[in-house]
Amino acid sequence: MTRILGIETSCDETSASVLQGEGDDVERKSLVILSQDVHRVFGGVVPEIASRAHLTSIVPVVARALDDAETSLDEIDAIAVTYAPGLIGALLVGVCYAKSLAFARGIPVVPIHHMEGHIFATALDDRDATPPFTCLLVSGGHTMLLDVEAWGRYRLLGATRDDAAGEAFDKVAKLLGLPYPGGRPLEMLAREGNASKYRFSKPMSRRNAEPGDADYYEFSFSGLKTAVLNAVNASDGNHRADIARGFQDALIGSLVEKTFRAALNFNRDKIVLGGGVACNSALVSAMRERVAELGAKVYAPSPRLATDNAAMIARAAFYHYAHGEHASLDLNAFASRPLPGLVAA
Ligand code: KG4
Ligand code: ZN
Fold first, then answer.
1. Ligand 1 atom at minimum distance from 10 CA
2. Which residue, 79, 187, 219, 251, is the most exposed by fewest CB within 10 angstroms?
């Protein structure tokens, strides 16, 4: 049996987790997530403040994760750490700390790409969320549609051409006077809205689109954001809930349609969602409804595992560790880096 300590510091959560198991049979022993609330007053993450906050919290957060798991570093076989993508200063705190611990204990470091962590997150909640599946990753920084034929083999079908889905939620929330991060407050406001008042068109969703078309699996949300801005300006601050509802319906409609296309064309009966926007219950129910005709099951992570956390990093490391992959002590952090294991579309 293997025991892995995961560390995640790519953005504004300092997180550590201990997992134990073998293959796809992995149990979560602990998960600590310390969210840096300080950024709220700035309406977005301030990189330098994030790095400093990781520095002051990384030691107690890891100690707490070991404590909660009733274990110690002596009983850890490997340390998994997010090395990319993210804020470089923030990533470096986790990478340096992971390397130091591993060097001191003489155990390997397993470097994990943050987005690969999101692909694995749902498997911690549901043991059936294993490949092959269609995967939709929707976070604050990324929007990716993937066909996952096996762990470690990712066919990138589409991504966003401009804003990420979560970023669109955050920006529109700001236009509507909601706090940061705006995804959850916007979802709440949209629940009170009337769906027929503002019908924004679903981005990149031509009905006659064919699988070979450049925009068939792609996303774009900046046009929708502008349409919302125009609606807000024309409404003199009224109809906020109706606008929120119209925005959310259009954005979700686009996500659902592209995911449906991917599941249909690759003949998948599992759809795995990941990233913070996967907390959105309107998205999950719209997805379930749309893919029902394919007989496909939708797996959505619980909110703690959907948003940034170290358990997903440790979970992805079980796969790589079992394949003998680990880094040497010159491992570096990278602000951007393609997902490893990409196969040709
Ligand atoms: O995956 P995540 O925690 O961090 C990144 O890696 O970016 O995603 C954060 C994003 C934010 O943009 C936030 O507004 C969005 O997820 N989010 C939501 C909801 N909860 C969080 N978006 C829509 N509906 C929600 N309920
Ligand atoms: Zn993330």
1. 6
2. 187
